[in-house]
Amino acid sequence: MEIRYEYSRKRSEFGRPCSFSDLLAEVTVDIPPDPSLADDFIPQDPVDFGVQEGPVMALHEVNTERAQVSVRGVNHVEGGWPKHVDPKNSELTTRYREEVEREEVYTKTVQRLGFVMEHYIKQNNTIDIYEEYFEEEEEEEEEEEHPSAKTINVIRDPNRPRRMATHLSWHPDSNRAVAVAYCSLDFQDSRKDMSFDSYIWDLAKPYTPELTLKPSSPVVTLEYNSKDWYHLLGGCYNGQIVYWDTRKGGLPMEMTPVEFSHRDPVYGACWLPSRTGTECFSGSTDGQVLWWDIRKMSQPSEKLILDITRQDQLKEALGAISLDFAPILPTKFLVGTEQGIIISCNRDAKTPPEKIANIFRSHIGAVYRVTRNPFFPKVFLSVGDWTARIWTEELMDSSSIMETKYHTSYLLDVCWSPVKPAVFFTARSDGILDVWDFLFHQKEPSLSLKVSNDPLLSLCSQDNGRIVACGTKQGAVSLLEISPGLCTIRKNEKTLSSTMFEREARREKVLQDKYRERLLREQERLRARPEEQEDPQELFKQARADFLSSIKAERRRRGLEVPGEVTGMGQFCYRGRDPSKGRGQGQGSCFSG
Fold first, then answer.
1. How far apart are CA 261 and CA 321, in angstroms?
2. Sequence-distant (≥ 6) Cβ neighbours of residue 132 within 8 angstroms
3. What is the dihedral sign for C-alpha 551, 553, 559, 561?
4. 449 and 546 share a domain?
5. In terms of CB atoms within 10 Å, which of 269, 395, 461, 490 comes out highest?
């Protein structure tokens, strides 16, 4: 039996060690080139040669552990408020703060955190780590930027025939999706092949809808619930109110019965900031405002008839074509009517006539949209006929404090910028979107952009004010990204806007007082001399003579031939042929009035 023992050692551990020293370079062998051998070779230019410092291995494998990935959702509530407290409702947040401050744990926690906070405050006062060294230069660069906007996407109605995009609503969770209400508002448009569906579009996948809403009647308006993101409220063309739970699909969860619903299309529907988050109200052109609770939609919980004569008669009511509700004022809301009147209502009033608080006679035609300023709730904006006007609730019986110029096309929708108090957007019937900044220019828009060849019917801006969605008559929704200068608030912009609104309100109040004084003086003059009242016939003759003389003077100013002249009071002479006598007969005619 052979016994063998093997062992291994590194080469550096046995044998004579190598000694290295630092010496200058020297030539050991020098072989000169042989020119006769150059004909046997082909020169190569360039020459690439690679050197690998690491060892060359034939096979190298690494086994790693597989990462386990799971999708999880986090329900983040602003400020860490409980689910039953709406952070946008000041009354609920104040009540919750008072309850927490009365607890003993709150006092101990504040005392414990006070020492830590005091240390960091002293440290920050010593060295300001957030100091901006080039702040002035950055502001100068922002001022040089010109207003601009670009179309980043267009969402189209997937059905034919095309329907109108009547209302838009952004998803409260970072505006990741937009709900679009599709409906045809043309008179007696009863095409059988027209779809009733509305859609929710995900901005990450804009080519196919995320969810298809299937109501029993076309939806005119859609609104997300800011407290419960999965609830979506809709007002139908047949007057019904319907709501969806997007977690359970596109079929309605419940809808109001026809006999207790509106009689006309529902043009406005808003959620109320209640403790449960289930209350809402709606307005329609039938002259009613109805309050609902989605837990029990068999009948409305409250009703208001929009009768400005305060007789509570439905036949005298004005049709509501737009609604606005601001959570900052939980008991007040605005109603825009078909008759051009804006009604400010107060739900907490004792009787229905007292709920109609103020009336603003605003536009010639229908008030397509009325909306409050997000920074100054007493200031609101309306759009109708050819202008957009700004009002204040501090002046009841006066006209608007500010207004845009008269356009050649109708204005169909408007919305405030959620980040800049003096910026708003208007949509026109010729497909143009106007961006107004009253701190920059009051007579012309800061930016006008041709969005579509079709009329723009609806507008809605994201919470950050960066992207504006425009819905057209053919069902296309254009997403526009505006420049940072139009969606970034400056330091003193809110103060300047407040000063501007107050100045215009004072100016309007002064004009209103002067007008009343003039009316009082005129009435006193008529009472003092009742016997010297002028004859109506004489007034009519004088007005007619003044009218004819103004026409004559205008034609002379333009260098045109005067066809007639005033020969006396009530007599008008026409020089030329009398058409009743045929060609070439007659030299003139006179008519006495």
1. 16
2. 138
3. positive
4. no
5. 269
